[in-house]
Amino acid sequence: MSDIKSKEVSAGSHPFKEIEAKWRKFWEDNGHHTADLNDSAKKLYSLVMFSYPSGEKLHIGHWYNYGPADTWSRKKKMEGFNVFEPMGYDSFGLPAENFALKSGVHPAISTAANVDYIREQLKQIGAMYDWSKELATSDPQYYRWTQWLFLKFYEHSMAVRKEAPVNWCPSCKTVLANEQVINGRCERCETEITHKNLKQWFLRITRYADRLLAGLDRLDWPAKTIAMQRNWIGRSEGSEIFFTGEKSGERIPVFTTRADTLFGVTYIVLAPEHPLVEKITVPECRQAVIEYVERSRRLSEIERLSTVKEKTGAFTGSFALNPINGERIQIWIADYVLYSYGTGAVMAVPGHDQRDWEFATKFNLEIRQVIEPSDDSSFDLARGAFEDYGRMVNSREFTGLDSRIGMNKVTEKLKSQGQGDFRVNYKLRDWLISRQRYWGAPIPIIRCEKCGDVPVSESELPVLLPNIRNFHPTGEGESPLATSPEFVNVRCPRCGGGARRETETMDTFVDSSWYFLRFLDPAYEKGPWDHDLVRKWLPIDMYIGGAEHAVMHLMYARFFCMFLFDIGLVHFDEPFLKLRHQGSITSKGSKMSKSRGNVINPEHFLERYGSDTLRMYLMFMGSYSLGGDWDDSGINGISRFLGRVYRLVSKYASEIKTRFPLAYSAIDQMDAGLNHRLNLTIKHVSGDIETLEFNTAIAACMELVNDLQKVSESQRLNNNQFYYSLQTLVLLMAPMAPHLAEELWSMIGGSGTIFSQAWPQADPQALALNTITMVVQVNGRLRGNFDVPAGIDEDAFFKIVSQDERVGKFIEGRQIVKKVFVPGKLLNIVIR
Q1: Most buried of 334, 382, 551, 811, CB within 10 angstroms?
Q2: CB–CB of 647/9 below 8 Å?
Q3: 3-state class of 453 per DSSP?
Q4: Are 582 and 64 in contact (CB under 8 A)?
Q5: How many CB atoms are located within 10 Å of the residue 805 CB?
Q6: Tens digit of pLDDT for each residue in 442-483?
Q7: What is the CATH number of the domain that holds 392?
């Protein structure tokens, strides 16, 4: 059905504008990207993390995520999978609201316009997105069910409102979850955060800490991401020990992993924000304590926990009793203790903890040794703390015990006296979801003085976001929704008396923690998702997105899924079986941002080179998982390559068309060298796309084209093997350059879409008879194994390996002193 005439095109180009417009229309008109969700026999749910529709639109970094991911999905479709590849918009939250504030346009209007614009950008990628399943989290039809899910958490006591010290961004004028604070700064605007005590809504993710850890063992995820989640959860086994206020008699719990050092406690330290501080501080110390607490509020957690920061503190004037020996010890406050971690109090053992030693040295507090080296070596506490395990000393009946044994013995004694117990502690904190911003899903709670917090009836959902003119943050810890009497003032659903709506909105990560369930039927009215379709299609088979979401979105979505599994709403407890990350594409060494002036807009490249060239260049730049700094100097090379393919195939299209479709088994005369190259290419492209190594897949296609162009003109004519190789080349390139491949497939006799064709299979005999495996070393160290033609010479082998990333990154820019080539076995490249 090719209606684009095979015309002369200049070297390095092909008529991409006509081709791409034609085939995008063909796909859309014929519904080729609409998955049959009733057929799940060989289903494959392939998902990329959806975009924020802010004013910055899509930049090159988004293309780097979406184009290659679609290449993987297109290959799976040709392998016979029923691929579902939806797309939507994470349209609530700070990015969209901040753009609206800057532009002076209401976020409902600006977000809708940005969604329309981004949709057209996404279509230019040429991806297999099923637009019939598009969704946006700011659509009331969607956030109705976000609110419904909040009520499920509330119903099961998993959503609670409590006062806590929170991270406050002075610029965004809202609370941030711990995961949204990077190096003490807001992850969105990079403003240094401060702290406030506010009553906020939390989801109790800490109840799932052990489940979240255990589940990691079942996931096909990058090792680094799994490690990041393990570290963020931060499971520690230790002891909870109860000190007692000397005068108040109030218990002060501390968590420690070193109960063996309890006899060495010479003071305890409370976090400045600990509620006990105000109660126990004596009048003569009150002013100094108040001033210290205020100074601490201005510090980030990173600053407070810094090991190089000078230790500061203030004495409360009060004392506590050590439960193991009844000793009277001072109670201090210090900013290196966080109320949000553990119990907000620590027992200070300056003889065996360096941080405590530095504090005690500065404030002239007692330093006592209760652990000595097991090997009887000497240790001078005047020079620092002895932090290793060893032998207990000065510890009454425990003296002489190995400290590891002593930890348990001490805890057992405290447990028998009701003054301690074994405990597991976590760094993970409950998920703070309250936001003092306008553009988000309202929390469906009504606050009544008589009845307390009352959930909105499910029949009253969604609680619609009111259309208010002044949606600017108040800056006072209150949402702009509080300024709308029509929204705020309601009747209590229980008693009928006057009441007020909750005015805070939900963290946008709540919206994105379940969107993959809704994609299957975004218009479903009977619940948040169609249970029959979810049972057929979930969990996700492949999820691709940025590693920056390791301890935010990816953790939250897992938590959501486990909770939904526990209450019987889904049949699985891990949402993403397979996860892969694309690397980051930076610009001028920094993350792309309009504020930095370094955003690379894809539209210039689309106009000049077309979609296929841009997506192939992004895949050819380097390792997909690593990314790199944007450099467009090589895009002409990809454009020329696609031009070569277009001219080569179109030149022989009529010859192939008369024989179409050509079958491998029907080739009567076979050139062994070309047959080897073709089957090796099939093998490499198949394997490399599967593992997201797109750059080497493209390189393999380039090598095949080089070999095909070496076939003499006389040998090409009436050569079924040559024609079959061109036919196979078009199939291999289809996932990477879908528009061009469709056009070439149509030229040579194909009908419909090329993506209904079977993926090429390599002939094992052609590979086995003609290939050997050789190794490459650089300075004697193994850098890779390569399948190459038997009898390959040194120059040909060096050319292959030097273009491969596994070797090229070690020799690029280095002087090659010599090459040691052992035919059929190895090549050792000596560099300096």
Answers
A1: 334
A2: yes
A3: strand
A4: yes
A5: 16
A6: 999 999 999 999 999 999 999 999 999 888 876 666 889 999
A7: 3.90.740.10
